[in-house]
Design brief:
Blueprint: H1 2-24, E1 27-34, E2 47-55, E3 64-71, E4 90-97, E5 102-107, E6 113-123, E7 128-137, H2 141-164, H3 169-179, E8 193-195, E9 200-204, E10 207-208, E11 213-219, H4 221-224, E12 229-238, E13 243-254, E14 256-261, E15 268-277, E16 280-292, H5 298-328
Parallel strand pairs: 10-16
Antiparallel strand pairs: 1-2, 2-5, 3-4, 3-6, 4-14, 5-13, 6-7, 8-16, 9-11, 11-14, 12-13, 12-15, 15-16
Helix pairs in contact: 2-5
Length: 329
């Protein structure tokens, strides 16, 4: 028993001495959005997302990379989102260089729900760290107001129909059938427009909703000799809405930058790149690409359709009850 008591302090000392380098190599990962998560709304304005990587001493890591993966919220239990086909899928995947321990980018969050951001940090001296961040985006309050007003309108429609067609069940069924008769939408696409640039190029895979698309910017080595560090500003803009859905500013890249990005809907997008290279005039690239849309699955419309039919049926029942009560009185 006395031998154990004597060796315990020695073991503790050895553990602290040998364990201190491991503690010193620990990396801290911090994530924030601007505006704050509770103020975020889907497809409103681009959100500034930033990561801060520090060592155990709290000082920012000078050199390194972060690998970022953003996943969309899982499918909703009842009402689907505006872009149901991207629910639960990978939205973006990229690798950004750290500048004074920070990595910043802009992103337009397409739908409501809980997003998941996975971050892997790799420093030049071999240190690694990983962390997952979850944040929730609430639905726009105006949409809930519109849904409530529409529901009230459907109820009143059912109420009036119930009073009018109380003695004709077939007429009620015909009214419901005609009200919800709808046609199928057709998809259209346009040809892409590319502006050739002699010192750099933008290569984009054929884009389709539901599948991440490879977006790549490459510096032309033949025109500038060796590929030096370029400071790249890259933006992706939704032309119809006039909104920037993704953007990075003055990102240091060694000759090329690539990422996987999922376009949320079938529309035309403009990918613009501006690169500043020491000793070389500003390099500009621009490409307009059409995104192939995808018809949402039928099961995504069933809950909402059932809800609206239930509201009409409730109105029909209330109208019939008030009519029968008035006649019996």
């Amino acid at each position: 028993m006395s031998l154990i008591s004597c060796t315990a302090p020695i073991v503790l000392t050895v553990f602290l001495v040998l364990g201190s380098p491991v503690w010193a190599e620990e990396l801290n990962i911090y994530f924030k959005t601007s505006p704050r998560p509770e103020l975020l709304r889907p497809f409103a304005d681009p959100v500034t997302m930033s990561l801060l990587i520090t060592g155990a001493d709290g000082r920012p890591i000078n050199q390194g990379f972060v690998e970022i993966r953003l996943d969309a919220p899982k499918p909703a239990r009842f009402f689907s989102t505006d872009f149901s086909f991207i629910e639960g899928s990978r939205l973006s995947e990229m690798r950004l260089a750290l500048r004074q321990g920070r990595a910043t980018w802009n992103y337009l969050l397409p739908i409501r729900g809980e997003y998941r951001l996975a971050v892997d940090v790799i420093t030049l001296d071999g240190k690694k760290a990983s962390k997952i961040f979850d944040f929730r985006v609430r639905e726009n309050e105006q949409k809930w107001f519109i849904l409530g007003a529409f529901s009230v309108g459907l109820f009143l429609l059912g109420l009036v129909a119930g009073r009018i067609f109380t003695q004709s069940r077939s007429s009620v069924a015909l009214l419901i059938t005609v009200t919800w008769l709808s046609g199928s939408a057709q998809l259209s696409s346009a040809q892409g427009l590319t502006k050739p640039i002699h010192t750099a190029s933008v290569n984009i895979e054929p884009a389709k909703v539901g599948i991440p698309t490879l977006v790549q910017w490459r510096l032309d080595g033949d025109s500038v000799g060796e590929k030096p560090t370029a400071f790249l500003t890259l933006t992706i803009t939704h032309l119809e809405k006039g909104k920037v859905v993704f953007g990075v500013e003055k990102l240091p890249v060694d000759g090329q930058f690539s990422m996987k990005f999922q376009f949320p809907d079938g529309a035309d997008y403009r990918v613009a790149a501006v690169a500043n290279v020491p000793g070389v005039p500003t390099i500009r690239n621009e490409q307009v690409i059409p995104v192939a849309g995808v018809e949402p699955p039928a099961k995504a419309m069933v809950p909402a359709l059932s809800y609206f039919l239930a509201i009409i049926a409730l109105g029909l029942g209330a109208g019939r009850w008030t009519k029968v009560r008035k006649m019996s009185a």
